[in-house]
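Dig into what follows:

_____
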Amino acid sequence: MDIQLLSKDAEAFIASLPKNAPIDRKTIDQLVVDLTSLKQQLKIKTEEKKETSSKFRKAKDDPEALASLKRKMQSISGELKKLESNKQLLEQQILELCTQVLPTKENEPELPQQFLAQQYSKTATIPNEAIQIELVQDDGAQTWDEYVNSHSNACSYHRYAWRSIITNSFGHKSFYLLAKHENVVIGVLPFFWLKSRLFGSFGVSMPFFNYGGPLANNASIAEYLMQAAAKIAKQNELAHLEIRTTNNGFSWPSESRKVSMILSLPKSSELLDAGLGAKVRAQAKQADQYAPSITFGKLDLLDDFYKVFSQNMRDLGTPVYGKSIFRNILSHPSIDATLVVTYTQKKPVGAAFLIANREMMEIPWASTLKSANFMNINMWMYHRILHHCIEREFKFFDFGRSTKDAGTYKFKKQWGAQPVEHYWYSWRPDDAEAPSLNPDNPKFKLMIATWKKLPLLIANVIGPHIVKNLP
């Protein structure tokens, strides 16, 4: 049970308990009343101590007044100590009454199954020569998804639906590898072939999104799928192959500069707010004075979403995706996607894209206009999105990928999100280091600075042709 929440807001703590919990609510309610009264006394006494402390400077030349103030401070400090001790005693009594009849959270997962160490089945080690690798086409989509849906560690991007979404949006060729043993599916690995004069020819699992990699019954099968993918990459003369996953321990060289920030959601919006720091709550409320509104929808919001998203990408110096990728995701019946747009004075100033997977809601894209920063619209919008996710009964919220200790990392961390390591494995036929195709690469600094100065119309026309080859 959450002792921190009890200390911050006893009523919210009691409200978080199951309604049918076999606890003595009459006794607990009285203890909460006593605890609330004690907190008020502590607040008054703390203010009195602060006020008394402020008088010391004026009394420094008056020994009698100074002595009186010291005695008063000692008396107040003694009372505060007693009140704090009584407060802790009451909190302990409430906890003890609850823990006698309620289970603790020790065995509850702090992260979605997707991020837990792969819960491999008891499939025995299978010799590589006994594993058959098939390249799946559309007629095998059902078999593919049956396996993905049965695996606890599957992410949204393992689903077959993403093959047509990415292909129709960017035109990339893909390879969907399926491993079988005695005609039973034991693993899958999707990857895409990106090819351009500007960035070369290479493969990624999965490009444009945060997760991918092998999904298998055991680690040796996953490794074998990666080797099979490397063989295909070599046959097609790809310069390198990148496998993006949150699973550690594969044999290929890897880097781990990125993390996902995952927040465990409480059962109610009231509990979320009670658990946030005072600074975060104040920042989230700052925009209220500008009367913003927020709308959740689908294709009906695409134009307004794109107005905000494309302008923000240009301002960041990043080529923007074309509208088609968002339209194709929203239109696909297998993907649970939602658009979010925030308005002030009927104009879109904030936007986000949400993708649901099992117990978790992910926000792969979010933007606010630079002109709206003074209103703190970003904080306001995220706060409302978190409430929306709680209303839809999601257990976790994925703030998306960040570089460790970067500004976006710190923004997400303040909400209480915890980091999950990313491991990006790379293969090259010559074992050389794979190129770094990301904004952190110093080689792109000039391009980023130039891009920020482009007229929005030009950036929106050129951007999609460039970014489709940036994974």
